Amino acid sequence: ENLTADLDALARDLDAEHVFHSWSAQGQPPQLVIASGRGTRVWDHAGNEYLDFSSQLVNVNIGHQHPAVIAAIREQAELLATVAPSAVNLARGEAAKRIVARAPSAHNKVFFTNGGADANENAIRMARLHTGRDTVLSTYRSYHGNTGAAIVATGDWRRIPNRFARGHVHFFGPFPYRSEFWSETPEQETERALQHLRRVIESEGPASIAAILLETVPGTAGVIVPPPGYLAGVRELCDRHGIVLILDEVMAGFGRTGRWFAFDGYDVTPDLITFAKGVNSGYVPAGGVIISDEIAADFDERVFPGGLTYSGHPLAMASIVATIDAMESEGIVDHAREVGAEAIAPALTELAEKHRVIGEVRGEGVFWALDLVADPETREPLPAAEMGRIKGALVERGLLPFTADNRIHVVPPCVVTADEVAQAAEIYDEVLATVAV
Ligand code: PLP
């Protein structure tokens, strides 16, 4: 046991000494050590167990260490561990076939990337080449990835200092609980958010706009489920003005909402779909763009000016094939929908009835947010220091949380059981009881 505790200490030392972390001041104390996992649980070297209600970065949809996916990666590694993107490879074709089988019917091609950011980067490039236009509209409440155009399309604080990519314009999407439009009902919110977008399009000049890029359900920004009619209204505006609709399904896709794609729940067909995360639960880095037949045909004769050494990497492709097959044969997407409706929704609703600090519970499937407020009347967000304390208290009790701004996102793997939800709810309950509101 000493030896294993020593490994935790060694991991922390090496990390503090040599590892430069994403989105953080480097002087912060080292984070949790995660050494192994299974399903919804992870462990450090000393054997301390945590319920993973973050799915890491909301990507481990199939749960940790699914044996069929691990076996597929191992088998592919023994056959061929890497291949040039220009070569034909069976694993790549099999992966693409499974992805397009779940996409709308007139979408038959996939461009593979290393993750979500470069998926959006290339989707934006395709939309600009397809339309011959420049401007990309996206929302303030969004995250699209940390590369040139994707980070400028992002709406949150990470975009603010960055003015290097041209042609990006932001607007407000609908958010009934924190409406920018003084709405009192979801219907009003839809109508007014669409009117706002219509005015932005007219003011920018419709003939200059290449694409509207939206997260189907904005994730990091707060699991903001779009009100009825909004996405169909955006599609209509795109059709009227010849604008490409790109739906970012990087976080919302592949089971998270209890559907293969989040947009399956709405009356909308995107032109380009970007994905990553859940497509293979991040066992090997991968993402991509699903391309409509119309846009793909642009590049039948003309060269597509874009590519990546690891586009369609065989280990990633084998893991995609095994992940999708396992999700299908084990009914994992249906399970996500059912566990969401039957276990998570009732548990979170009960918490909200008990704790005034919960201003709103929203979500579906295994994709939920608790919007925490200092005052339920004004809906003033709970301050950052208190959020930090809550996060620490959850970890202390063995729950790995995902927090963002004033929210706890309840985002376990799709395979989470009702028992695990009950355990997590008990931990949330204990910790929220310590918040004075
Ligand atoms: N798009 C969305 C909606 C995301 O949530 C993320 C990552 O959190 C990205 C894009 C970027 O993906 P990646 O970090 O794989 O580049």
From TrEMBL:
Highest taxon of source: Bacteria
Gene3D superfamilies on file: Aspartate Aminotransferase, domain 1, Type I PLP-dependent aspartate aminotransferase-like (Major domain)
CDD domains attached to this UniProt entry: OAT_like
MF annotations from Gene Ontology: transaminase activity
Keyword list, A-Z: Aminotransferase, Pyridoxal phosphate, Transferase
UniProt-listed Pfam families: Aminotran_3
Annotated InterPro entries: Aminotrans_3, Aminotrans_3_PPA_site, PyrdxlP-dep_Trfase, PyrdxlP-dep_Trfase_major, PyrdxlP-dep_Trfase_small
NCBIfam families on file: PRK06062.1
Family indicated by similarity: Belongs to the class-III pyridoxal-phosphate-dependent aminotransferase family.
Protein name, as recorded: Aspartate aminotransferase family protein
Organism this protein belongs to: Agromyces aurantiacus
